[in-house]
Records
---
Amino acid sequence: MADNLEKRPNVGILEVAKNVGVGIFNRTLGRLTGAGIQKDSLIVRAGAKWSGRGGQKDWRVRLTLPAQSNLRDVLLSGEITRPLRDSNGIFWPLTPSMIIQHSANYNALAQTHSNYPFQAYQNSQVDQMNIIGEFPVQNSEDAKHWVATVHFLRTITKMFFGGGDYKGNPPPIMHLSGYGDHMFHNVPVVVNTFNVELRAGIDYISTRQDGVYYKKPGKPTMADVAGPTDDATWAPTISNISSVLVEFLTNAIL
């Protein structure tokens, strides 16, 4: 701190205290302003956007509901999953790591007076696909999207239960798309597993889903409506979300 004051003689104690105070509410901005970077700097104002590529076709890796599926109103109608309605599912905002594997199975037939067996073809299969990608969160809107993504993955790996017409049905079939029409284009898949890595030593950003409230025992009252801190959810500024997909050969819409 003393070195900074010597290099910047015009900086007073009040400005330093102000910079420290800013760090209480925004650690990242506090570090930058404390280092002498002004609020109007390009570094401070720079930020990534989760939007698509303008008029170009979006080739990000995504898991979406089939276009003809009538599960959209079931899975994306709640306040928590509302940020996913425009994309009809989830996507990885940054380019993920993908591992895909196709295999052909052969049966080795032993031949008399031969050093090598005869490889009789049996079948081929598409093995599991692994997707591992980072999810950045820079503000409360990004945090809402992160919460919706995790909630959606929890939902599509469970069978339907409770009331409704789909009670007892298995988890829905999704469409995998990414990297253009001739790589993954509406490939029918089911989500086998998914993992969310919540790292230690990073910042978390809080968010609230509008209209979501905790229901207290008994008859609902106005007190049940969420207050400023009731349904706050904390999303990590950076996390890994990975999933294992299995290609599903079917003509069914669901």
---
Amino acid sequence: MNEVRSIDRIDTGPRFTDADAIRLNQMFRGSDTHEMLAGVLDGDLAGDVAIVSSFGAESAALLHLIAQVRSDIPVLFLETGKHFPETLAYRDALAARLGLTNLVNLTPDTQALGEKDENGLRWSYDPDGCCDLRKVQPLAAALNGYDASFTGRKAFQNSARAELPRFEVDTSDAAGRLKINPLIDWPQDDIDAYFEEHDLPRHPLVESGYPSIGCSPCTHKVAAGEDPRSGRWKGWDKTECGIHLPGVDGLAAALDHVFGAAG
């Protein structure tokens, strides 16, 4: 009797689903951030992982936490060509200080810039288009090689981030990459205390009134008491560059149901 040979199939499904994100949120519920990071990285729970870092005002805290677990994790930095010189100097100094051995600078496609931002002023009349060219597209191409990414987002930064969970599925495409927000529940006081405890250097522009730092043309000083990100894209109806898209409402509702029932 001839055996029926099974057909080889390529798995084209997403890497992670909302159910996976809910499971991970449940798994690490009550765990502190270091325990969670060690569990994810040492336990290989998220596959190939990179951290996306702006080397901004509070980036040193997450980079330090991750470096204690794995200093060779790829650190993806979007070198847009529009950063403050202070940011680039801080990036290099902090990477050396923390022993980060795998810093990856992502740059925009030169042909795309030539076609769509030849004079470099697109930020002044189309900030969404500028961010897409200089941030969204380069990062999307780079993340194709990873299953998950760490972000430095925190709930206190603005209302759009207030309900984000630790683990969510990246909604930027259908690949199903996991997006991990280790500091999402850290208040500003805890961030400040962590900097003090570990003697971490601050971004040099923080003391000048920049609590959230992005590209220089679209970053302004923030007055005391204002939303920390209100200086980003000032005067525009824009709060995100586009690499973090909304789309966790269903997941948030599911988490409320799961954790509410458990409580």
---
Amino acid sequence: MTAVVLDGIVLGLQFGLLGVGLTLVYGLGGVLNLAHGQLAVVAAIAAALALGAGVPAGVAALGGVLMAGLVGLILDASLMRSVYRQPTEGRVLLGLLLTLGVSFVIAGFLVWQFPIEALSLNIGGGAVELLGVRMRRGSLLASAIALVAGGALLAFFRLSTLGRAVRSVIQDEEGAKLVGINPASIRTFIFVLSAILAGLVAITRSMTSPVPVTAGIDLTILALVVTVVGGLGSVPGAFVAGILLGIVNTVSSFYIGQYITSIVLLAAAALTIVLRPSGLLGQRP
């Protein structure tokens, strides 16, 4: 049982990072980015192609993450500008439609051009014993990267001037304008950061299992579930929800079977919404 829980924590940390990227964009711009999972796949395929060309693994991984960030920047500078000009109600609907369309376009292009491509980073070395359980080095490295990224994000939002500017725009956009903060620039920064986090999830995920070209929809659904359970707009909530759902995922897969794990995750999300509509750490209206 300990091994299953540890595997769940490894997976949950990746879920958490995935949810953080989505919840930041929603909290700041009021948009649920349905292309979020596809940005992770962009990073995975870019890294896989670089590896195939003989680029060192570390450089290929960094290049994949930066590619995801570049695609995020292009999306923000083009389609998202028209979304942000809409009032709150129209922004949600238009954002859903446009990002869903972007998701289909990216998925179709990648499957057309690279139908069998997948990213799998094999971390060498023997297993490491942790709490009496032998863990793969890839799992430990992926967890360490996710923890460092999560800690850096929390420190950034609490301690840095830019992080406090982001929080001020989320809490009161009009008030932020009055003190000289440009909400448009902050939204661009967060959208690119969200894309980079999605790319980082793809890289860490590939250390434990392959990330195929068709993984985008599944990753987006996972990000949505984590975001809703953790609380829309809550970064700590996304991490807590990610870890809990990661454990639920592995325990369900081990004892019940992988074929209904998605149903179990959705049921856990539905139960959370019924008991606490604002999410685990979301603010009550």
